[in-house]
Amino acid sequence: MKIPAALGAAALALGLLTACGGSSDDQYCKDLKAAQNQFDSISSSDVSKLDAAFKTFHKLAAEAPDDIKSDWKTLDDAITTVTKALDDAGIKFSDFAKIQQNKVPEGVDPTKLQEVATKFASLGDAKFTKASEAVQKHAKDVCKVTLG
Fold first, then answer.
1. Sequential DSSP letters for 56-75
2. Would you give the distance in Å from CA 5 to the centre of its chain?
3. Is there a contact between 138 and 67 (Cβ–Cβ < 8 Å)?
4. Sign of the torsion angle spanned by Cα atoms 88, 91, 110, 5
């Protein structure tokens, strides 16, 4: 299983939303800045906080301005796919500590667990990376927030 590597890819991808700053009055920019602590914890590979970070990610995608909305949709769709794979496999975020120790929680289908790893790996693909870079550029240009 390549779960640790996939989690690392997720942490790296989500880590793009760290180091927020700026003073825009726009709600999206304020929320982006407010998300800093959550994404800082993700970039440290603290998988116990993925659930909260994913919820924040969905919120930012929903309120993203029109000029960056399609890129946020790309990111949000990937996160939604990961969340669905976790649900399908019967895995909670709290199970990751056991999984990282090669202890599969009771009732988890090993084949579906592999699908989770595949979905996490998609958070590092070219489409996700391109959208992440666009979000970073927009954050800097519009919100005056430097990400990553």
1. HHHHHHHH--HHHHHHHHHH
2. 14
3. yes
4. positive
